[in-house]
Design a protein that fits this description.
By secondary structure, the chain is α+β, with helices and mostly antiparallel strands. 18% of the residues lie in helices and 31% in strands. It folds into 5 domains: 91 residues, no CATH class; 86 residues, Sandwich (Immunoglobulin-like); 129 residues, Immunoglobulin-like, CATH 2.60.40; 97 residues, Immunoglobulin-like, CATH 2.60.40; 259 residues, LmbE-like (Rossmann fold). It contains 11 helices and 42 strands. A hairpin with a 6-residue loop joins β25 and β26. It is globular and about 95 Å long.
């Protein structure tokens, strides 16, 4: 019997069983399909339905060598007791029925011990050895598959017990990406995907970068020691080693920023297989004068001097603490702390008065889970009124007054009936904008004895939405439309092109990132996305990750064919290595990325698609747009999407220099209620690896939150046209890069600042 992935089942006493079933076979709540795996634990007369979530690839992966069939769930217990996260008690008759069913339906010794398969690492460079061990079982036979394929690459591998055994010698030319291990027990049971691992191919590495000291004074020279190594089994030539400020090479400087300096440590280094080179660099940089102490960071880049866009590795030096002469205070804090300076701590006091007084009442309380409405639907407000014991409400009346953002009154209602209790009040339809519903209790002589107010927003909303993000946290550009969709039950789905493996990886580990750390950090960022969107009300089932390389979408675009994928910098992979990638082992190539986008567009048929702007200076943001537009144009030519499908883009980084997209744009305005803006601010905090802690430390109070999306949005009116414009742009960029490379070859053309 084949088994799907399951979670660990813990039982203190008695018998634990697991059932692997197809989609919708496990009954819950009187027969509602669950869509995952049915778990059952019997202990001390109690059972529990354990989980309705599917763990795509737990580590260690835990499985049973056999399980009870679906009918056992149906026959042994009434359907209504199989409730998620609810214990139930078995009667004597039910316990006897269970024992008899197990004896009749399960083969002898079928319910054997759990098998946990564990590899010694999560990620392996090619030309290395994968080792594996078992927990809770004796000997098994293993087979290895490339994820997404059925044909095994290696079979009949004997694995013995709890000691690590050799599983597979990874060939130098092995495909990068994710591999899965299937196990066969001595009883002939097969456990599919018992565990998995990733394979990468890193050619060169910055082994270490050390500064000559930790504390510098303005005017001091920075003299780093750098060690680089050839990890491959073949010579590497034309390596350029650079020392420069903390950098992500895939983000172009803003138009008003000066060019970033760099110190060329080596221009055309050659390293033999396994060879390394140590550099003691003198005066690589000079610490600039500052008004007060600051922390500075440096990086080392290895690239191909002939192809500057081909980066082999990127590493970061430990932080350097710099001070002006004889001015040691105030100290600056590193990234991981909430505040940069002690003087910033009072900002935290904003939480004390988050809501203005007019939005606070113990008597009138609003239901705030629906505050954005479409223009064609009459909005409503829900609230409760509680009379305090000492209040005299004789002859009092309850009123609802609606005003626009300028304070102009649009509605005024006097409600009949008892004042205390729950109220749902329908309002008139309005044009797009932000409105305030003011509810107050008034005495017969006109005195207001209780009041509160709630903002509502009215917008032209699409019928369905598909958002393509370059990275996990790019969704924070759209909290308003996300919340509007959730509140109005508008289908909304998210596709993240990259795993975000680069941005902040070194800070997370406080160490430069290799392939294993980068992949693990990508999973951290994916989890942050699920949590942030979950706070806005989005289901995890509506979120998809493709696992392309952070900072590498431009190179993915340049590598058109799937048989010539891009070998990424930090992941050192040319296929998506993530265990939860929506498409296993997606090649890092344009055709593959466009095909993936087409699949999601065809699947969800969105009325509106949202991407990054085509001119963004962050290469991933603009290439996100290019991939999506190419997918839309191909689908349009095939008659697979309507010509009037809306395409909306956001501006985060701003435009990069050079030729811009030829599209026509129309500014989009989405009005956001204060309650939705509050949720959007809180959603930022879940991105802890992306300075979410700093955002949380600087709470913007309710009155100052913007009542629109945090970044500008534009609709592209003619996405159907201008095919191939970005091919010409890429050619001009390549010509410019070639010119810059030639200039750099001139002595003294580019030097570190003095």
């Amino acid at each position: 019997m084949d088994f799907e992935t399951s979670k660990t089942i813990g039982c203190e006493l008695g018998l634990c069983v697991r059932e692997s079933v197809g989609n919708g076979e496990c009954p819950i709540n009187g027969g509602e399909p669950l869509g995952t795996t049915c778990y059952l634990c019997v202990r001390s007369g109690q059972g529990r339905f354990w989980s309705r979530q599917r763990d795509l690839n737990p580590r260690p992966a835990v499985y049973k060598t056999a399980a009870l069939p679906t009918e056992l769930c149906r026959l042994a217990f009434p359907a209504e007791v199989l409730r998620s996260d609810r214990h139930f008690t078995l009667t004597s008759v039910q316990r006897l029925s269970l024992i008899l069913l197990i004896a009749a339906l399960c083969p002898p010794l079928a319910l054997t011990a759990e098998i946990a398969a564990v590899t010694d690492y999560t990620n392996y460079n090619t030309d290395s050895e994968v080792r594996m061990r078992l927990e809770g079982a004796g000997d098994v036979t293993a087979a290895i598959r490339y994820a997404g394929e059925d044909k095994p690459l290696a079979t009949a591998i004997k694995i013995h017990g709890r000691e690590y055994s050799n599983l597979w010698a990874v060939p130098w030319d092995a495909r990068t990406g994710r591999y899965e291990v299937d196990l066969t027990t001595g009883g002939g049971n097969t456990i599919r995907n018992a565990t998995s691992f990733a394979v990468h191919r890193q050619l060169a590495k910055v082994e270490s970068v050390e500064l000559d000291k930790t504390f510098y004074t303005s005017g001091d020279s920075v003299n780093p020691r750098i060690v680089v190594r050839n990890l491959s089994n073949r010579p590497l030539d034309h390596l350029q080693v650079e020392f420069e400020p903390y950098t992500y090479p895939w983000i172009a400087p803003a138009p008003d920023e000066p060019p970033m300096w760099k110190h060329i440590v080596a221009r055309a280094l050659s390293l033999p297989p396994g060879g390394q080179k140590e550099f003691d660099v003198q005066k690589a940089a000079v610490v600039q004068a500052r008004k007060e102490p600051v922390i500075i960071y440096y990086s080392v880049v290895i690239r191909d001097s002939r192809q500057p866009d081909r980066i082999y590795d990127l590493a970061f030096a430990p932080p350097a603490f710099t001070t002006p002469p004889n001015k040691p205070l105030p100290k600056q804090y590193p990234f991981l702390y909430l505040y940069w300076h002690l003087r910033d701590v009072p900002k935290s006091q904003a939480y004390r008065q988050f809501y203005p007084p007019e939005f606070v009442s113990d008597v009138i309380r609003f239901v705030t889970d629906h505050t954005i409405f479409p223009t064609h639907v009459a909005p409503s407000v829900s609230f409760s009124v509680t009379q305090t014991p000492d209040a005299d409400w004789k002859n009092a009346s309850l009123h609802v007054r609606v005003v626009d953002s300028s304070g102009k009154e649009l509605e005024n209602k006097t409600l009949t009936g008892p004042i205390p209790g729950q109220h749902v009040i329908g309002l008139q339809t309005q044009a797009p904008g932000v409105y305030t519903a003011r509810v107050y209790v008034q005495t017969a002589d006109g005195a207001v004895i209780a009041h509160n107010q709630l903002e509502i927003a009215i917008d032209d909303l699409p019928k369905s939405i598909l958002i393509f993000c370059a990275h996990e946290d790019d969704d924070t550009a759209h909290p308003g439309i996300i919340r509007a969709a959730v509140e109005n039950h508008i289908p909304i789905h998210f596709v993240y092109f990259t795993g975000g493996d680069a941005g902040g990886c070194d800070r997370y580990y406080m160490h430069s990132c290799d392939a294993a750390r980068a992949m693990d950090f990508g999973e951290v960022r994916m989890d942050e996305a699920r949590a942030s969107l979950g706070h806005l009300g989005v289901s995890r089932d509506d979120i998809f990750f493709l696992g392309l390389p952070d900072g590498g979408l431009g190179q993915v675009w340049d590598h058109v064919k799937a048989d010539d994928p891009y070998l990424s910098v930090l992941l050192a992979s040319d296929h998506a290595p993530y265990r939860n990638a929506a498409i296993p082992n997606l090649p890092y190539a344009r055709d593959s990325a466009v095909s993936a986008a087409k699949q999601f567009i065809s699947r969800f048929k969105p009325d509106m698609i949202i991407t990054g702007h085509p001119d963004e200076r962050h290469v991933d943001h603009r290439t996100n747009n290019w991939i999506v537009v190419e997918a839309m144009q191909e689908l349009l030519r095939a008659g697979a999407i309507p010509r009037d499908t809306k395409l909306v883009v956001d501006v985060s980084y701003g435009p990069m220099p050079g030729r811009h997209a030829p599209y026509k744009y129309e500014k989009q305005m989405l009005y956001v209620s204060g309650e939705a803006a509050k949720l959007g601010q809180e959603a930022l905090w879940y991105y802890q690896s992306q300075d979410g802690n700093h955002q949380q430390a600087e709470i913007v109070d309710f009155g100052k939150l913007p009542r629109h999306e945090p970044y500008p949005h534009y609709r592209i009116l003619d996405w159907q046209d201008h095919e191939g414009w970005n091919e010409q742009r890429k050619e001009s960029q390549r010509d410019a890069r070639s010119l810059v490379a030639n200039l750099k070859s001139l002595p003294g053309a580019f030097t570190a600042p003095k």
